[in-house]
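thought: fold this chain, then report.
action: predict
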Amino acid sequence: MQPNSPVFFLDKNHGLMIREMLRSVGIRVFAHKDFGWRHDLSDIEIIHQCAEKGYAIISGDKAMARVPHERQAIIDGKCKVFMFDDTGKTRTEDWIASILVGRQRLVEIVQKTNGPLFVTIKACRAKGHIGRPDFVEKAGGGWRSAEEVADIKPMALEHPNQPKARPQQGKFEFPSPKN
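observation:
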């Protein structure tokens, strides 16, 4: 994991399998359980905590974009929220695949934008499974300027435990032909 890489918060509805898989490829992600929060902590409190820490939110709760007090907390906190499209119909493994395939795009959106914003993540089996940001422009959401983005070092997300290439073990010498 790179020290300046974005940090994601995964809501409690998605278990630990997604969290562990994302960590295994170097994505900095925390879940409700990592903080020892009460199991009944309200969505508003979670949104405030994520805003305070600067975490992007990954959630299956699309209502956050519609419920007035939750939407306002996201706007006030300038949060970046990624929402799974159909959590009731799609297996956890498909959501993992969506995030793994689209992780560079997720990181790019977090690094190159100002919140507040909402992004839909579709199941990996769907074409274009990472949606375009739906910026809350009146509250300052939008793409960052070229100058702001120029200082961000591109982040290569590679498997942190990937083995290094082995050095060549030796040369095979062919005998010279005898005439």
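thought: worth noting. Residues 92-112 form the longest helix (21 residues).
final: tokens above.
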